[in-house]
Amino acid sequence: MNDYIMAFLVGGTICLIAQILMDRTKLTPGRILVVFVTTGVILGALKIYDVVVKYGKAGATIPLLGFGFNLAKSVMKEVDEVGFLGAFTGGVKGAAGGISAAIFFGYIMALLFNSKTK
């Protein structure tokens, strides 16, 4: 049960920060997305985000910061195994599953539902 609470608190805090940025700044949601992914990459490369993931689990790995963390972690692993070329292939390998799932399920939802513009 403690894992659920920590995931909720960490994920909720990340979402709270995003909401505050949208409400209090002139940043667009797209720019906030880029800031979060870039922050995840930086914190992942510095191994700071590892501590957040240790306690927050899915609450830390699912949001955009987690995507950036996943990219950084995959690139570092691939560089250790392959060398310099891993800097270009690591991120693609690490994110391929999530991106493929998003495309697949997005396509299925587009087939099932009729979207309308506002």
UniProtKB/TrEMBL annotation:
Keyword terms, alphabetized: Membrane, Transmembrane, Transmembrane helix
TM helices/strands, residue ranges: 6-22, 29-49, 94-113
Pfam families linked to this entry: SpoVAC_SpoVAEB
Matches recorded under InterPro entries: Spore_V_AE, SpoVA
Signal sequence range: none
Protein name per Swiss-Prot or TrEMBL: Stage V sporulation protein AE
Species name: Clostridium ganghwense
